[in-house]
User: Fold this.
Amino acid sequence: MRVVSCNSFAPVDQLVVEERPSPPLPDGHVRIAVTACGVNFVDALIVQGLYQLKPTLPFVPGGEVAGTVTEVAADVTSHAVGDRVFVTTGLSGGFASEVVMPAFRVIPTPSTITDAQAATFVQSYCTAWFALHLRAKAQAGEWLLVLGAGGGVGLAAVDVGRAMGLRVIAAASSEAKRELAMAHGAEAVIDTSNEDLKVRAKELSGGGVHHVYDPVGGAMAEAGLRSLRDDGQLLVIGFAAGEIPKLPANQILLRNRRVTGVDWGGWTFSHAAENAAMLAAVIAAVAKGELHPVAPRTYPLTDVAEALTDQLERRVVGKSVLLP
Ligand SMILES: NC(=O)c1ccc[n+]([C@@H]2O[C@H](COP(=O)([O-])OP(=O)(O)OC[C@H]3O[C@@H](n4cnc5c(N)ncnc54)[C@H](OP(=O)(O)O)[C@@H]3O)[C@@H](O)[C@H]2O)c1
Assistant:
């Protein structure tokens, strides 16, 4: 099998693509020939040692794959050779041509989506669903401003928000990202390269939005906070801009605003049953065509450094995937 190996926490061009023997198949497990490895912003942070959790070195990065079952342990009845499946491998293990996973974690791929889509929607859509349904408790008709709306978790929030009946304003830096957000259900866009976020968000929403979904951080977070109406809330998702914002508390006090943390990854460890129910709801909505994971940009596995560099440098529109 072919894997990407992270041998030290270092810039992404230090990753090594190498051949390894296939691992054995323990009881209760299935072997999957991987056809698509989803790429997430967090993968680029993890390999550089910049994420809050650090796998033991050396490790294979990547956390989401899709493919075809090639072998099942004798005690497994839930899957059969030839099944199309996808699975979340965790913090590591996904950038590989083959994975061996516990059968209970392996999920049939809906016939309505490609393997590339199956390998790229779980992290982004679960984050968006957790943020908007469980943390924000957003209600149909409310205004949602999505920052980084052409990126992975941002675009998923546009789609989940539209499906909830929210009125979505998508903020993004490029025409391609804004067009993609409109295609996923945004009713208005803000050009963050040229427009004033707060002024435009207030104009578009008639005085301020109910929710701001912020995976970007940096200076954008304060502009988002100032875009909120009375009792509005800023959802803190991530810091793709690289800077953890320090928000002025007077802007939270004014208009009775709220700032809400969103840590989907941490929550999954303490809420396994609730997370399984949420994942089932997300998959059902995808299978029924109520949610629309984007067709990702593709790279060969050997171009992993290029894929992660494009992610870090804002060149990915939507999602991307490695093909082993
Ligand atoms: N809280 C959670 O549970 C959770 C779960 C998953 C991910 N996250 C976090 O969410 C963040 C976004 O992840 P993602 O997968 O959506 O990433 P992504 O696909 O790369 O999108 C991030 C967006 O951030 C914007 N951005 C602004 N400044 C940037 C900069 N200096 N570098 C890179 N991007 C910049 C870009 O949009 P523009 O070009 O339009 O500005 C980009 O499209 C990450 O910090 C990730 O760790 C959090």
